[in-house]
Design a protein that fits this description.
It contains five helices and 17 strands. The chain is of the alpha+beta class.
Length: 270
């Protein structure tokens, strides 16, 4: 989600053996029923013994599965049983072992968020899409933005602000009118959400090595939450974010669904 090694290559998960597929499904009826049929065809392997995890759902569930298997160091192959499915392959039950053997891999590196709450407690989380700060009440948030130790925005009044991985640049970042970033660009989009002051600031592109610090000003009057993918920390006073190259996940795509190409193509969608 630069966080990506874009070298496309055939993937053979642990000398793939049929029966070593762990099927994970979202709670929707479509996904649950799809899992039942796939388990009947290919077996039901526990995640801890699997060579690959197959996620059945939408993009949100794909992110959940990525976080779930991160410590297991196994790749994830998604099949769309949800709505958007940008990170997913087309659903199909036939010839799954062959599809896995032909799949192309993308290695993703997350953002690491370190947040401090107003009571002094700390929270840490990883984000493969984005880290966002969001106002909790009716008043705008007021945030100071520091990049690599230099204050770049002394005061930003906004509904929020986010920093995205390249793969995440097509998600919330794009909805907030941030730029789509190719996977090999080594850039992280920094995008305001409904900026009130300075009104004309549209964000920035930062090098993937950047260390970003968000400081919430007037936090008692303007409470602000921080969100890393689906982990929310409320009432934050500061949030530090940087890319974590010590952690990675491999995501698998069918040859006609390669992620780097789809992100390029998304920039020409009208």
């Amino acid at each position: 989600m630069n966080d990506i090694d874009t070298t496309a290559k055939a993937f053979r998960p642990r000398e793939f053996i049929p029966g070593r597929i762990a099927f994970c499904a979202s709670t929707t009826v479509l996904a649950v029923e799809a899992r039942e049929r796939l388990v009947a065809d290919y077996g039901d392997c526990p995640l801890e013994q699997a060579a690959v995890a197959v996620a059945l759902g939408g993009d949100g569930f794909m992110l959940e599965t990525i976080h779930r298997v991160l410590e297991l160091h196994i790749p994830v192959y998604g099949m769309n049983c949800g709505s958007v499915g940008f990170l997913m392959n087309t659903f199909g039950e036939a010839n799954l072992p062959e599809r896995l053997a032909r799949a192309q891999e993308a290695v993703l590196y997350p953002l690491r968020m370190q947040a401090v709450r107003d009571d002094g407690t700390n929270a840490e989380a990883l984000a493969f899409n984005e880290v966002s700060l969001l106002r909790q009440l009716r008043q705008t948030s007021k945030v100071r933005v520091t990049v690599d130790g230099k204050v770049r925005l002394p005061e930003l009044m906004c509904d929020g602000i986010l920093i995205s991985t390249p793969a995440g640049s097509t998600a919330y970042n794009l909805s907030a009118h941030g730029p789509i970033v190719p996977l090999s660009a080594n850039l992280l989009p920094l995008t305001p959400i409904s900026a009130f002051r300075p009104r004309r600031w549209r964000g920035a592109l930062l090098p993937s090595t950047a260390e970003v610090l968000f400081e919430v000003l007037e936090s008692d009057k303007r409470p602000t939450a921080a969100v890393a993918d689906f982990t929310e920390v409320r009432n934050v006073v500061s949030v530090a974010v940087k890319e974590d190259r010590s952690t990675s996940i491999t995501v698998l795509f069918d040859p006609d669904r390669v992620l780097s190409e789809r992100i390029i193509a998304e920039q020409f969608t009208v």
